[in-house]
Task: inverse folding
């Protein structure tokens, strides 16, 4: 911006006006500001840097720089087991925080686990198992301080649906369980592999919007599933879509429902929601909604035990196998038909689990402002699930609700996970009998009150406001899950996300630039209506790298701009266009197809006078003649000019000899300079 | 660029220096150049324009604008049958050109067709059939004037390999043929559908580089296949990879080869190559290589007929069924197991055929500078193949070699295709018996000399020079085809192309900007080493739209730049960084994830002083203390500043309230202005 130039610029001005006046006379580029050509990088370095940016963008080896060998080794071990580094600085103050947080999330997770296990069509104890081993593994390997590990609603549902489409859990529970472990194993392998290969960025391809929609839909689905337990319905559809669920609910209305169950459920649901409300109202009472579930479990269990309501058809948990996780190494399918199925399911479940965990990790990391190495996290989560699959756990990950509680309860480190896991251990060892009379209705209500938070309508509204396309993705995923199934919803989410990426790379934006009054700044005339076009010069900015995926479009779009412009010019007899200027600042890269496109653009500009004669259907004969005249007049004048190509682009323009073809003197540092070259008069009186 | 400002700017300067001096004192934005917020578009219009840009980028309805109903109808019909529009202006002069061109390509295509049919494991007549009907259809529906329609080497090979992996052509010729027609039918449907749905841009996802590699590989493979005919080998491998081919060639060396065949082949290959050479040497003799194949066919046939060389083991064509295409409507599988297979093969073959045709169409269109509607072309090609599949033709498309000859022979319109098709018709009716004694060796040599042009090593070299990644794609496809198979090569080509796109959208470039001496232009300091950084201000340019796929990376990358910079500053005690400026000119769009990323960036800047204390392993205690001090000093000073957000971005920054969060006065039109705000002193003395 000239106004910032200060005194020095003024002398510069005079100097340059002078230079320009002679330069533009025999069309050379002003002597200052040649467009820089970066020093040629050697191939290996180039390759190296690309790889680094792609896979080691977060520069994980930063701390290893110039360290002694032994130190490096230590750092390496610390990198795998972060507990060793933060453990050293651990103290009582922190322990206090972790203890409170750990106990709180434990009280929250135990009832949830039992319920979630049902979502995965597994016996309740497997939910608890998955809250015992995985958190321990994560505590030593993970680097997030706030994430709370365990089974989560969405993954449980997803796993449940995917598994039961292969094996019927009622008819064949053993094989079903074995497949579950197999899937868990491969989920872990997937996660760890992504981490080790530093492919963590792959999960970024599921857009935030899509996730919001997917989560919301899953939450609704899960809540609907709970109607079974909540209304005490005996036979319930296997499908998860809203229609068949509502059908089987209503069809069983007059005989299938159990009023006692409903009463218990309703009462405690009201209680839980009220507790939530209090927690929201005043964050000092965050612990109220946190312990409410456990309380309601205790109360309801007591109530059922005393009234023997189970005799009146109130379904209860009955038996939870006590004792800690048995080994399940031998149960995993490493051969046979189920290997492939388990593998497929594992990948899907693993990716979703990863998405959830990563989202949580990032959120809290940025709230407390510490760095998280996404790939390291994945390795930790992967290892955790692999070990889990050996110890009768199903896919565990970070839970939104529990992590939030963990954070609010003032957790300091992953120790809170250890505390939780100890509590779960004690529960498994000694307290399982107490759950015998726990009514399923309670678990249903707990799950319902847990998942409703996942319906993030506020986010949806914001998405609608910010980006309509994102909103489509969001709704697509949502309705996909609700009306079809979890997989369909997921599929929609992923494909819409990809569609967006493809759209982005196929149809880059272009803009006509104008001069902002009393400055030498050129901006999009749509954004700055006050900006004035330069007579005789059409300035087009291409807003993307020019790659094979869009090169052809870019070329044709530019030609279309030109055509429109010319018709405009023709209509109101303005100065005919002599220069087509392409502002390349945003064009960060260009490939062979892109170069070809530029060459074609260049050539067809030279051939423009042919153009008109061959499209009689579009313009009337009269115009035709006018055009031809105007073209004869301006033929050989219409020139292509480039402004501010970036380092890579200018380099490639040279290696491909396009720069030579176009003429070095047609490439400028700024639009202003280019304009000065095209129409010197203009520059004098802006 | 200040230098262009001229006198007007000077008064502006004084005015602004004044404004700034007071603005920077109580940190407000200079009163001029507010960042423009474009007028809110209504939703429908927005959606409409997006759709238009995506599917009607080439504005096909342009000519329909403000026309009468009847005119529109006519234009519509003309759009489907372009012959109606160019037919009206057709004249004898054009006919002359077309006649010559048509006869030339006919003489070229007849021997090629017979050979290509072999590549597709079909009887010779099917090659001729495919040069009779499809050209006629294309002539009335197509809009390219130079493309020559018929069977082509690569597609024939591809179809052959794909089909014989399903059905053995020798054991079960009838079913094989039926599947071929089915595939052709679906190839046509695929092409037409893409055109009608205006999804033509999908083929742009196969990058130029990948195509070069694929074509080259296919050419080599085809040439190797010809060794069978060329050496007169009886039993030849079915595989197409170089290793197994060479093995079966060499293994049959001492008994399987037939010297008479080799002699004939060698002689005529020499002749053909010499003809090619002449054609290259002097374009006036382009017709020499064009008619050479037919001549060699005639001569060799005569020779064999006279010498009865077929008695000495020279394999000959024997019988070509005479008469024109029989109907094959009933032969297409519309039901059963083969339907799916035909469908799959059809899609692949159709896409490749499309790619070749489109490439040719575009090339010649830009050489003669006329517009081609890619989607309309696809409809034409699709219709042509569908009709073809009903009339015993297999997939036809535009041929590189024949189109080039057509162009050089001075074709004016698609009439040259009609001429060719008439000649082929006559051949089928009356001349097929003459081919009885044609030695297969000749067909082999003709194919070899035809396909060697497809090995475009010059392009490969250019690709290597321009874009290394493209080169990898190119070589990947090439070696994939040569050493594995056509499908594998294709798969590699497509996946590498996609990998590139994903890389592009996941890892956008960022650059540190510096001030170019004696100007107010800020540019990438890598490209312009003379550019000087602004003390106390870190200016980072993000070179891409910020989407979910890269938002997280962008955020972390910026923070990393900042960290590096701070360590630098720390080392050589420069002015500490007070401002992080993000130049957003190239950021053409931002979605919800992008906004989140910016918010996180903003927050973590506010929390920077925490940052240091929690990473003791990286900096020594001493530094730690230094840092903390420096941070205490600069805490609350480090600010985020944005320069030149585009129309969509600024709009979204406002709707998402991030602009408010950041502070309107932190968003500037240009970097220069932002810098002036950040360090007013600096602006005075550049």
Result:
């Amino acid at each position: 911006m000239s106004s910032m130039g200060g005194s020095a610029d003024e002398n510069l001005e005079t100097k340059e006006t002078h230079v320009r006046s002679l330069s533009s006379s025999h069309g050379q580029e002003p002597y200052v500001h040649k467009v820089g050509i970066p020093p040629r990088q050697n191939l290996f370095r180039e390759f190296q840097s690309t790889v680094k940016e792609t896979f080691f963008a977060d520069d994980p080896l930063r701390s290893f720089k110039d360290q002694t060998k032994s130190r490096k080794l230590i750092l390496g071990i610390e990198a795998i087991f972060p507990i060793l580094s933060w453990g050293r600085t651990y103290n009582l103050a922190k322990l206090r925080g972790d203890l409170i947080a750990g106990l709180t999330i434990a009280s929250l997770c135990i009832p949830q686990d039992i319920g979630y296990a049902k979502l995965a069509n597994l016996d309740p104890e497997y939910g608890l198992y998955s809250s015992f081993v995985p958190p321990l593994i994560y505590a030593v390997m993970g680097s997030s301080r706030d994430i709370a590990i365990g089974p989560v609603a969405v993954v449980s549902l997803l796993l449940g649906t995917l598994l039961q489409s292969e094996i019927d859990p009622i008819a064949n529970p053993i094989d079903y369980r074995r497949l579950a472990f197999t899937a868990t194993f491969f989920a872990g392998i997937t996660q760890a592999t992504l981490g080790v290969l530093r492919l963590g960025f792959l999960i970024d391809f599921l857009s935030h919007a899509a996730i919001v929609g997917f989560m919301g839909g899953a939450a609704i689905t899960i809540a609907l599933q709970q109607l079974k337990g909540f209304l005490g319905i005996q036979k319930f559809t296997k499908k998860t879509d809203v229609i068949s669920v509502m059908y089987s609910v209503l069809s069983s209305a007059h005989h299938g429902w159990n009023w006692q169950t409903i009463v218990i459920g309703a009462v405690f649901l009201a209680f839980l929601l009220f507790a939530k409300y209090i927690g929201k109202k005043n964050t000092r009472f965050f612990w109220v909604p946190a312990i409410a579930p456990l309380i309601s479990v205790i109360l309801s269990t007591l109530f059922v035990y005393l009234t023997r309501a189970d005799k009146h058809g109130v379904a209860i948990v009955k038996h939870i196998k006590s004792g800690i996780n048995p080994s399940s190494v031998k149960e995993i399918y490493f051969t046979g038909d189920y290997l492939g199925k388990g593998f497929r399911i594992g990948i899907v479940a693993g990716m979703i689990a990863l998405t959830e965990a990563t989202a949580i990790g990032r959120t809290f990391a940025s709230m407390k402002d510490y760095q998280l190495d996404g790939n390291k996290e994945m390795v930790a989560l992967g290892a955790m699930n692999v070990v889990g699959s050996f110890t009768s756990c199903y896919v565990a990950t970070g839970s939104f609700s529990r992590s939030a509680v963990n954070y609010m309860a003032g957790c300091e480190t992953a120790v809170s996970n250890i505390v939780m896991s100890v509590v779960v251990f004690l529960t498994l060892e000694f307290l399982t009998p107490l759950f015998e009379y726990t009514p399923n209705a309670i678990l249903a209500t707990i799950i319902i009150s847990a998942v409703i938070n996942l319906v993030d309508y506020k986010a949806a509204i914001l998405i609608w406001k910010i980006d309509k396309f994102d909103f489509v993705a969001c709704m697509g995923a949502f309705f996909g899950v609700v009306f079809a199934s979890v997989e369909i919803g997921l599929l929609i989410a992923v494909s819409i996300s990809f569609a967006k990426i493809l759209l982005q790379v196929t149809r880059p934006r272009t803009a006509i630039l104008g001069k902002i009054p009393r400055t030498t700044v050129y901006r999009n005339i749509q954004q700055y209506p006050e900006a004035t076009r330069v007579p005789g010069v059409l300035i087009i900015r291409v807003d993307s790298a020019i790659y094979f995926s869009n090169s052809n479009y870019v070329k044709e779009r530019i030609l279309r701009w030109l055509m429109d412009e010319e018709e405009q010019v023709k209509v109101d007899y303005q100065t005919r266009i002599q220069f087509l200027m392409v502002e390349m600042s945003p064009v960060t890269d260009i490939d062979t197809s892109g170069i070809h496109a530029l060459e074609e653009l260049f050539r067809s500009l030279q051939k423009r006078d042919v153009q008109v004669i061959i499209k009689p259907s579009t313009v009337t004969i009269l115009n035709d003649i006018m055009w031809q005249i105007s073209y004869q007049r301006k033929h050989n004048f219409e020139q292509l000019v480039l402004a501010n190509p970036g380092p890579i682009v200018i380099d490639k323009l040279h290696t491909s000899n396009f720069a030579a073809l176009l003429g070095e003197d047609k490439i400028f540092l700024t639009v202003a300079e280019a304009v000065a070259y095209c129409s010197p008069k203009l520059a004098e009186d802006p």
Observations:
- The beta strands of chain B are 149-150, 397-398, 510-515, 522-524, 537-542, 579-583, 639-643, 667-668.
